[in-house]
C-alpha cells in the first residue's frame, strides 16, 4: 500500500475577495480580519486615531497618554492625530457630556508622558476632574 502523498504548500495567493477591499476597510485592513482599533485604514495600513472612550482623569492624577493608550490596547502616537488645524496628542474635555458629543475644551500637542491633568486649565474651582481621549496606534 502506498503512503499518502503529503500536501504541497500552495503557491496561490490567499483569496481576499470574501472580505472586500483590504486597502481601506477598518475591519479588514491589509488582510481579512485585521481590525484597526483607533484610526482609519489607508493603503492597507492602520492609521493612528483618538481612543473612543471618554476616560475620566481625576484632579492631580499622574495618568498620561501612554497609560490611556495601553488601557485600550495601543501605544501613544505623539502629535499624530489631526484635530482642526493642529496635530494633537490628546483631547481634554471639561465634562463627560462634552466628551460624549465631541466638544473639546483643549487639544494638546504635549508629549505622551505629560500627565493629562497638566494639559488644561480648570474652568471652575478645584477639584478639576476632566475626561480625555489620546492619540493611539
Notes on the protein architecture:
It is built from two helices and nine strands, in the order E-E-E-E-H-E-E-E-H-E-E. The strands form three sheets. Strands 3, 4, 7, 8 and 9 form a five-stranded antiparallel beta sheet that branches. The chain has helices spanning 65-71, 96-101, and strands at 41-42, 45-46, 49-50, 55-57, 81-83, 86-88, 90-93, 106-108, 130-136. The protein is mainly beta and 137 residues long. It folds into two domains: 14-47, no CATH class; 48-136, no CATH class. Helix content is 9%, strand content 21%.
Percent helix = under 10%
Number of helices: 2
- The class by helix and strand makeup works out as mainly beta
User: How many domains in all?
Assistant: 2
Give the percentage of residues in beta strands.
Answer: 15-25%
Biggest sheet, open or closed, and with what strands and sense? Answer: 5 strands, antiparallel
Give the tally of β-strands. Answer: 9
Amino acid at each position: 500500500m502506498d503512503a499518502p502523498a503529503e500536501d504541497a504548500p500552495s503557491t496561490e495567493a490567499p483569496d481576499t475577495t470574501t472580505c472586500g477591499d483590504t486597502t481601506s476597510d477598518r475591519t479588514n485592513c491589509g488582510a481579512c480580519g485585521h481590525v484597526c482599533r483607533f484610526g482609519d485604514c489607508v493603503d492597507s495600513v492602520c492609521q493612528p486615531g483618538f481612543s473612543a472612550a471618554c476616560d475620566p482623569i481625576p484632579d492631580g492624577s499622574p495618568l498620561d497618554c501612554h497609560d490611556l493608550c495601553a488601557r485600550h490596547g495601543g501605544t501613544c502616537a505623539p502629535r499624530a492625530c489631526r484635530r482642526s488645524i493642529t496635530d494633537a496628542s490628546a483631547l481634554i474635555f471639561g465634562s463627560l457630556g462634552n466628551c460624549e458629543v465631541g466638544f473639546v475644551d483643549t487639544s494638546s500637542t504635549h508629549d505622551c508622558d505629560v500627565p493629562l491633568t497638566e494639559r488644561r486649565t480648570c474652568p471652575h474651582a478645584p477639584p478639576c476632574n476632566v475626561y480625555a481621549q489620546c492619540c493611539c496606534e
